[in-house]
Each structure stands twice: as C-alpha cells, then as structure tokens.
What we know:
heterodimer; A: 114 residues; mainly beta; seven-stranded mixed beta sheet; four-stranded antiparallel beta sheet; B: 112 residues
Amino acid sequence: xxxxxxSPSNKVTEKGKxxxxxxxxxxxxxxxxxxxxxxxxxxxFLIYFQGNSAPDKSGLPSDRFSAERTGGSxxxxxxxxxxxxxxxxxxCASSSTGTSTEAFFGQGTRLTVV
Amino acid sequence: xxxxxxxxxQVPVFEEAPVExxxxxxxxxxxxxxxxxxxxxxxxxxxLKYLSGSTLVKGINGFEAEFNKSQTSFHLRxxxxxISDTAEYFCAVSDPPDKLIFGTGTRLQVFP
Lengths: 114, 112
C-alpha cells in the first residue's frame, strides 16, 4: 500500500476484555515497530520485528501484551485482560532498512479501556 | 542507554516569528538523529534526519536542524513560522539496530 495502515482507528473496550490491533506495513518493508503514545509517558517503544522474528521485545510492558507478524507483512498486537492504564494511542511504523533510518508511521489506533 | 531530552514542553510564538525547539541527546556511540512532527489525530511524519556528513540538515516545510556533537544537541529551527506549523514535535535518536528513542515532545503553538 501507499502507507502504513492501522486498524481499527478507534477501539473502546471494557476492562478485562482482549483486543487485537492490526498493522499493515508498507509493501516490501522488512522492519516493523510498535510504539505506544500516552499522556505523561510520551512515545514508548514496544517491539521490533525484522521479517517474522522479533529480536527486541524489551518494551512490552507486561505478559498481557504480545505481538506477531506473519508472512513478513501484517502484524497484530494483542492485549489480554485490558486495564485502564492500557488506554493510549498505539502507533505502528515500518522501515525498509531495519535501522530506523527511514521509519514511516501509521495514524495509530486509539484504544480506550472503560 | 541512549536518551533524548526536549527542554520545552510548550513553545508559543506569533506567526512569522522565528522559532527554535531544543533537543539534547545522550549517547556514547555514533548517532542518527531525527525530528518528527505530529499534527492533531495523525501519525508521525519525518521532518528531517541527521545520519552523517554536513551538520546542518534541511527538512520539509522550511525547517532545519543543526547537529552539534560537542554540545550533544540537535535543535530544530524555522526562520518564519505559519499557523499551519502548530503541532507536536518530537526529537528522536536511533538506537541501532532496532528502535527510535523519542523525547517527550514539544507543542508548538503559533498565534496570529
């Protein structure tokens, strides 16, 4: 596609429910990143994929968070048993070089846990 | 560990005035530096980047930044701002090979 696509754009969920956030990177981009943007916390790195493998998961805040990438393309970020503190905008980015030198961001998914 | 400090959380300025948004980084290795802009309800858009070479980097929308290794700074400047420049600006440093470390952002508010 022309850019990084994220869906849904907005998600409201009840506390305790599981949610899945999807990211469609730019075609041909081998690297994919997830970030979280929340009030007072700025932009936090969550996870990085190179192809289908995730060499850096250091930013995932708890074991309720997981992510996968299939076919070297689409990625899904899953949050289990959501908590109110998970409310944030989740941003996905992709890069052709894998060194963050040309990372293109999607418009994000705004998650609200009520 | 690498880190980025944006010294001003908000910068108010009148239209057509010059502006400087400050960014300092800490790193013990060679760095790649970036400025991103985020307009309301949108993702991040790359303004400019420093990878190597000339320390004065020109970006989109008339912005430029200067890499100063001795002061570990990468301040963003524009000689004359427009209302449309109102947005959040993020400085970032690359932590190779895998991620960008962002500052907390500076909200630029341009008044008529």
